[in-house]
Design brief:
The protein is 35% helix and 19% strand. The chain is an alpha+beta fold. The protein folds into three domains: 66 residues; 222 residues, Dipeptide-binding Protein, domain 3, CATH 3.10.105; 235 residues, 3-Layer(aba) Sandwich (D-Maltodextrin-Binding Protein, domain 2). Strand 18, helix 17 and strand 19 form a beta-alpha-beta unit. The radius of gyration is 24 Å and the shape is globular.
Length: 587
């Protein structure tokens, strides 16, 4: 009989870790747990009585979420015990390196497998392929280098199990004419209402982890920031880029010196002109070693990057303001994709005077300054945000949407219900059980979204440190069943590799492991014989993921336990805390 052990971290991670034998509970947890239990009882009573206002209930829920998040984080930081973890990556620009190296590279802060330490020889080969690919201008040859690097992580070492490739499946109010590029975040300034409506109500699926311009790495934070901050360029629906806060750029004949020309009619939301120095400051702050911003490594091609980020020097001379409306940066060698980064967050400007004057509050409403089409009017963490049109925006006359109301709705089913009730205009991440019902609606939209949903492996964990065991796990995942039956999205492509089908270099089933139950059992038996394990049920692994992915990961757990007979223990964590915990483990 299938044995299922489900350890939910949403409220009592301490109990989960203790039951699983992972760690001792930190001191003071009894008190914290008692506070959580009391607040849960109070909330339940208030909801049952029906006398509390929506604002009072929301406040109680926010307090409860804060308590449970703090408790979960404290416990998990004391024991990074995951064997496998769920993650996904939506690509930021159209180059295979943005998946293979950005996410799984040996120095990437975005992967939590520790594979480079576990396999230094393979890591050296991988690094050589990456270095050559970045300076290779021949498309075919370059793709081959990325494919060879992909094979190392997906097939040779099996440190990642790709599950499916993303698309953008969403419900959109048909009153709106929308512009959604395949890369980057949609800008509401480019949307239009056929009826003349000036407010759009948008859903995000988690609390905003951060509104620090240079710190943010997740799609939720970046969606909000994309409304507030203009990059030099923006992505178009055909994956090309066009000017936004810039008017153009030049590249030297040798491909290493970029000169970017800015608009002279752009202002911040407090009336201060937007200048080249603000973009220089943004890059410098991104790379500041004291801040350790995760996306800094995207700019590692800059001359002096290593010396500046290591603290050897305190200036970055390769990024300079030539004059008030021109900045220039110099690369160590040509990078064929680097122009597309002008449409990415690593080139965002910042107002250091505002940051330094308000170090603890500069990302809050009333303090945060925008150079984009909107300003932040209201932010109730975990509940909602309200943005309104920036009166100082250079193109304000051509921004028809004057107000954006962002609802934070954790559950996909709740979001869909809100959409169907007319309470929101945009709902993505649709629940699997409703997919067949809504896929024929006129509001149902599917668009390209290059990216991959995957399970990563901690190569330092017991059992998961063995490549044969990892390959057994990979072969035991029936991705066709997940896509067709669990997600009920037959159009979605199961993934054998990490490079998405829209990206040159995609290998299809020429890399990785298809579903192979006999092969999975054979590899498990080989591992057990090598490790001296008689009973597969003695093999205990932890599968960590963030809330909202229960359907797919419950299916993966069932496949591993049902086919291999191992003991798979699930741990779930709220998104922002999940990222924090994994980052702590990585550090």
């Amino acid at each position: 009989m299938l044995k299922k052990r489900l350890f939910i971290l949403n409220f009592l991670l301490i109990a989960a870790l203790v039951v699983a034998g992972c760690a001792q509970a930190p001191a003071g947890d009894d008190t914290a747990a008692a506070e959580i239990a009391a607040l849960e009882a109070e909330l339940a009573a208030a909801e049952a009585a029906g006398g509390a206002s929506d604002a009072e209930l929301a406040s109680m829920k926010a307090e409860l979420e804060g308590l449970t998040g703090d408790l979960a984080k404290a416990a998990a930081e004391s024991a990074c015990t995951y064997s496998t973890y769920r993650m996904g990556w939506i690509m930021d620009w159209a180059d295979a390196g943005n998946m293979v190296d950005t996410v799984f590279g040996t120095h990437s802060p975005l992967q939590y497998t520790f594979w480079a330490d576990s396999y230094p020889d393979e890591a050296a080969v991988f690094e050589g392929l990456v270095a050559d690919a970045y300076i290779n201008t021949d498309l075919e040859s370059r793709a081959g280098q990325w494919q060879a690097a992909e094979k190392i992580i997906v097939e040779d070492l099996a440190i990642v199990f790709p599950i499916y490739h993303y698309d953008r499946t969403t419900m959109i109010n048909t009153d709106f004419e929308v512009v959604i590029p395949p890369f980057g975040s949609a800008r509401m300034a480019d949307w239009r209402s056929k009826s003349g409506a000036t407010t759009i109500r948008y859903r995000v699926g988690a609390a905003i982890p951060t509104l620090d311009i240079q710190e943010a790495t997740d799609t939720t934070s970046h969606y909000v920031l994309a409304q507030l901050i203009d990059h030099p360029y923006k992505f178009n629906v055909d994956s090309t880029i066009s000017p936004l806060s810039a008017t153009g750029f030049d590249v030297s004949d040798d491909g290493t010196v970029f000169t970017v020309y800015l608009r002279e009619d752009a202002f911040w939301s407090d009336g201060v002109p937007v200048t080249a120095q603000h973009f220089v400051d943004g890059i410098t702050r991104l790379l500041n070693p004291e801040l350790a911003n995760e996306y800094g490594y995207v700019m590692d091609a800059l001359v002096g990057y290593g010396e500046f980020t290591s603290g050897e020097t305190d200036t970055l001379d390769s990024v300079v303001a030539v004059d008030d409306y021109t900045f220039q940066f110099t690369l160590k060698e040509p990078r064929s994709y680097f122009d597309s980064l002008l449409a990415f967050f690593t080139f965002d400007p910042v107002r250091l005077d505002v940051v330094e004057a308000n170090p603890d509050t500069w990302t809050q409403p009333g303090v945060f300054v925008s150079n984009g089409a909107y300003v932040m009017l209201e932010h109730n963490p975990g509940e909602n945000l309200v943005l309104e049109k920036n009166e100082y925006y250079w193109d304000a006359d051509n921004v028809p949407i004057e107000r954006i109301e962002i609802a934070i709705i954790d559950e996909d089913a709740t979001a869909l219900a809100a959409f169907e009730a007319g309470e929101i205009d945009f709902a993505d991440a649709l629940p699997a059980e409703d997919m067949s019902r809504v896929s024929g609606f006129p509001e149902f939209v599917r668009l390209p979204r290059p990216g991959t949903w995957y399970v990563g492996v901690n190569t330092t964990a017991e059992h998961a440190s063995n490549a044969t065991f990892r390959k057994a796990l990979a072969k035991a995942i029936d991705k066709d069943t997940i896509v067709n039956n669990v997600l009920d999205m037959p159009w979605r492509l199961p993934a054998d590799g990490v490079i998405p089908p829209e990206i040159f270099g995609h290998q299809g089933d020429a890399v990785g492991f298809p579903y192979d139950p006999d092969g999975a059992v054979a590899m498990l038996e080989e591992y057990m014989a090598e490790a001296g394990i008689d009973d597969a049920n003695d093999i205990v692994i932890e599968l960590w993921y963030n809330k909202g992915n229960e359907d797919v990961l419950d299916a993966v757990q069932a496949m591993w336990e049902g086919l291999l007979g191992i003991d798979v223990r699930i741990v779930t964590i709220e998104w922002a805390s999940y990222l924090d915990i994994l980052d702590e483990c990585n550090n």
